[in-house]
Design brief:
The chain is an all-beta fold. It is about 0% helix and about 35% strand. The protein is built from no helices and five strands. The chain has a five-stranded antiparallel β-sheet with strand order 4-3-2-1-5, with no helix packed on it. Strand 3 and strand 4 form a beta hairpin. The radius of gyration is 11 Å and the shape is globular.
Length: about 70
Amino acid sequence: PYSQRRAGDAVFFGGACNCRTNPQGIHHVGIMMNSGTKMWNALKTGTNVREDDFGGWRERPCPYVIRF
């Protein structure tokens, strides 16, 4: 679950996504830097990876993360 996220987890975004039943809704992914709202991500294909804080984004993350 997203509530149990930690550094290294993949966090997903996709509007009203449900990662289990509607993975097609996912349009963005980042790697968590901590258990808060900081992640590494690239905003567009072909751009550099950067540190980002999604705490102020209008879109909320999907309810599940992937732990490697």
